[in-house]
Write a structure and sequence with these properties.
single chain, mainly alpha, Non-ribosomal Peptide Synthetase Peptidyl Carrier Protein, Chain A, globular
Length: about 80
């Protein structure tokens, strides 16, 4: 099971946000709220999730809901790990 710290590290690595991610909580909005979080960032984040956690994300599993907040992203990754 991954934690919010793991998600913060992913976001730090992919978006290069530095210490800004330390303030992110489960309710922190991502899509539409963080300028760096665009479609290319989503692609990079998915690639890093696959590499770092050894999971595969199919195109039909990707939805805006999964990337809405830090918490929904954490839930998405945890669901992939549990599958």
């Amino acid at each position: 099971m991954i934690t919010i710290q793991d998600i913060r590290q992913l976001l730090r690595d992919v978006l290069q946000l530095g210490d800004r991610v330390n303030a992110f909580g489960p309710g922190t909005r991502l899509l539409g709220s963080i300028p760096e979080f665009d479609s290319m960032a989503v692609v990079g984040l998915i690639a890093m999730i696959e590499d770092r956690f050894g999971v595969s994300v199919d195109d039909d599993e990707i939805s805006a809901d999964s990337f809405e907040t830090v918490g929904t992203l954490m839930d998405f990754v945890n669901a992939k790990l549990a599958a």
